[in-house]
């Protein structure tokens, strides 16, 4: 094919393509166009709030910001008491073996309620911290006032063991604080009836006697008095849960022959507690009948709640203040083993007395204590001297006529 023909063919092809392009362009211009749409404007979205944070621990206010009581202790509001553990924790020792923590917790709560030591409804005990195998625990109370009330409770008996609340060691070295409310006044419980059982055999077994006594009720405590060789001295002290059980024991066991021995069971409402050391440790087995005879003789006498003890102190010793205080404290400790004292006087010239020098005058809570003192102290030795004891006119004692 020559060049002219080829050029003509190319020109024709280009023309055809151009026409097609123009046709397409025309169609594009005439196409239906969509309606104009407004572009939505996005609103500003508020960012989500951060999740609530746990409350941060607050700093305890300075003790100096609290008011002080007359005793100089800081008065802390009740809602802050738990932040001062030394003021709401107490030590409780002498626990029996295998103590159940929950049982002990409930017992303490019941004792608090029965003594009027609870200020608010509910349990005053927060927790009892008891380590396995230990014979002590720590008790945490919910308020300072109830803690101080627990300290005022006299010895409580738990499963035959005497327990008493004491302060924890760090209390003495910590700042003195107290609650804002008045501490409850403890209501002393009426002492349970205690029984004196005499006529026991020298080989009396504690468990065997406990089994006999338990036939009359729930035995709360039992003390068989023994000598240094662990031989029974012929008598014991016991206590039941209720007065009815006590009376049942007296009715059923008094003058009853057991093991060839005639038992005597006497009711003494306020004998010393069985856990105390008795001053009667010099009574021998052969003196059992004499002991009973003395008790009968005393009942025939004109008794009183006041006794006078002779030959217990040396006059030259009591004029020295140090010696005097030591003697009075020691005598009081020994005599309190017999029963509760109201007062005790040891006259001396230095205090303005002219009569009764060298004597000891003791006022017991009742005549029963005085009777026991007469029996147990007569002809006993104190500081190497044999003492003499007798009843004393309570009117003369009240008038300070010694």
UniProtKB/TrEMBL annotation:
Residue span, RRM domain: 88-170, 193-270, 311-394
Alphabetical keyword list: mRNA processing, mRNA splicing, RNA-binding
InterPro entries with a match to the protein in the record: Nucleotide-bd_a/b_plait_sf, RBD_domain_sf, RRM_dom
Entry GO MF terms: poly-pyrimidine tract binding; pre-mRNA 3'-splice site binding
Cellular compartments per GO CC: commitment complex; nuclear speck; U2-type prespliceosome; U2AF complex
Superkingdom of this protein's organism: Eukaryota
Biased composition (Pro residues): 48-58
Record region (Disordered): 24-72
Any one GO biological process: spliceosomal complex assembly
Protein name: RRM domain-containing protein
Organism: Paramecium tetraurelia
